[in-house]
Write a sequence for this structure.
């Protein structure tokens, strides 16, 4: 507190904030039936942001001695001295997240067993499996934030992550399967789903896609399962609703607040208060309490995702979406847990409504242009729909379109909801996120497939 007071008394601007972080990251990686990596990385440091006349100045250091702090302060442009009185008031969170099994209380040998269990079950599936990679990671993060509004917050975050990547090969054809599970939680994640279940899902997907045929590209109805994960919403819609991109004119949704941009059955929400999700937190990385933000309500664009800086520019309050990778990075508007709200149709009803089309059970990676909304997504696991039923698997399929097209054309929304996790990259920063989607039907979208 003495350090924070010293910094806030020394710097004067329209806004000043301090982000102190202590982080320990442990990782176990197994490949070629061997534990190839078992590492611990520790880092701590402090970043200071100064905003003057709409300009941001940022400096950080891992030298927390008096000399290091003085060098940091002197490096900030528009350095000014102030004799103001600082009386920091602690803000307490409105919610709490419970870590049931803290990984710090478990020996590393026990964690290696989880990794080996996943590895072993993958290799026993078939001789066609040629490569298996299993990764276990845990991160312990302590954060303290103070600002010139004289608020002080602190938070401890525990993230645990488990990944399996399997590669199958036959007759020159190579296919991969991937599964990931984790969140703002501890080793209780293995009570929710076992290493064997995750490994089986990844391995069987790779094997199944070996024998799947390719299909001819074109326009057709598509059903995206809740099991597919919400990556398509995160990329095709979510990034375009981040206020910095909107203000810079780099979003197709710039200047469209209050306008109908989606079907009336579409509501899009970003909610960092969801219990123990990968994108959840008590406070964002500026000290703003986590909250639920409705971005699109029944088709109407109602809000953007704001950090403090973007909110200042628009004369609004932050939505609690100021996030950063570490103390070495300044905060920017980022998604947390972003989802389409469930609707009224059962998944079975949605599938039965399609006479001939395509069913997405697992999304892969993709690329999006936020200025135009255009996207291309790979489908990791997909099937044909024939006479209202899921039939044979097909591979090598791409979904091609625009975010605006997706939002406006969805005409059935399921009453289920599934989530996928990831690390979202933006401005050379990565932050943990969760994406959610119910089963949805798109009457027509371009499918990229085999050229015939």
């Amino acid at each position: 507190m003495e350090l924070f007071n010293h910094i806030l008394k020394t710097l004067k601007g329209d806004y000043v904030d301090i982000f102190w972080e202590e982080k320990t990251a442990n990782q176990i990686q197994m490949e070629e039936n061997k534990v190839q990596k078992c590492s611990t990385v520790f880092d701590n440091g402090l970043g200071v942001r100064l905003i003057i006349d709409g300009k941001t100045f940022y400096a950080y250091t891992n030298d927390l001695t008096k000399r290091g702090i003085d060098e940091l302060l002197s490096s900030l442009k528009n350095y000014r001295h102030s004799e103001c009185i600082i009386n920091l008031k602690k803000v307490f969170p409105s919610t709490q997240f419970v870590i049931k099994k803290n990984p710090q209380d478990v020996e590393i040998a026990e964690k290696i067993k989880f990794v080996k269990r996943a590895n072993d079950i993958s290799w026993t599936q078939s001789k066609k499996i040629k490569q298996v990679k299993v990764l276990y990671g845990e991160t312990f993060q302590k954060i303290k934030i103070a600002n010139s509004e004289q608020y002080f917050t602190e938070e401890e975050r525990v993230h645990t992550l488990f990944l399996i990547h399997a590669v199958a090969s036959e007759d020159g054809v190579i296919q991969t399967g991937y599964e990931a599970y984790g969140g703002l939680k501890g080793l209780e994640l293995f009570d929710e789903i076992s290493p064997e279940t995750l490994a089986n899902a990844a391995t069987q997907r790779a094997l199944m896609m070996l024998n799947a045929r390719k299909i001819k590209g074109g326009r057709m109805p598509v059903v995206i399962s809740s099991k597919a994960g919400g990556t398509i919403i995160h990329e095709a819609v979510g990034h375009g609703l981040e206020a910095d991109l909107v203000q810079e004119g780099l979003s197709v949704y710039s200047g469209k607040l209050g306008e109908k941009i989606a079907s009336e059955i579409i509501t899009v929400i970003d909610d960092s208060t969801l219990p123990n999700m990968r994108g959840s937190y008590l406070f964002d990385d500026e000290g703003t309490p986590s909250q639920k933000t409705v971005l699109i309500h029944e088709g109407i664009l109602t809000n953007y995702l704001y950090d403090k800086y973007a909110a200042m520019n628009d004369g609004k309050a932050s939505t609690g979406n100021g996030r950063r990778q570490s103390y070495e990075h300044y905060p920017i508007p980022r998604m947390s847990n972003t989802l389409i709200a469930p609707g009224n149709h059962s998944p079975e009803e949605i599938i039965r409504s399609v006479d001939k089309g395509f069913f997405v059970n697992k999304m892969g990676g993709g690329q999006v242009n936020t200025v135009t909304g255009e996207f291309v997504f790979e489908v990791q696991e997909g099937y044909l729909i024939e006479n209202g039923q899921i039939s044979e698997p097909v591979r090598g399929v791409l979904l091609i379109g625009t975010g605006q097209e997706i939002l406006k054309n969805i005409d059935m929304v399921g009453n289920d909801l599934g989530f996928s996790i990831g690390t979202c990259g933006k401005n050379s920063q990565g932050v943990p996120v969760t994406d959610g989607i119910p089963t949805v039907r798109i009457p027509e979208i371009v499918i990229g497939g085999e050229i015939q």
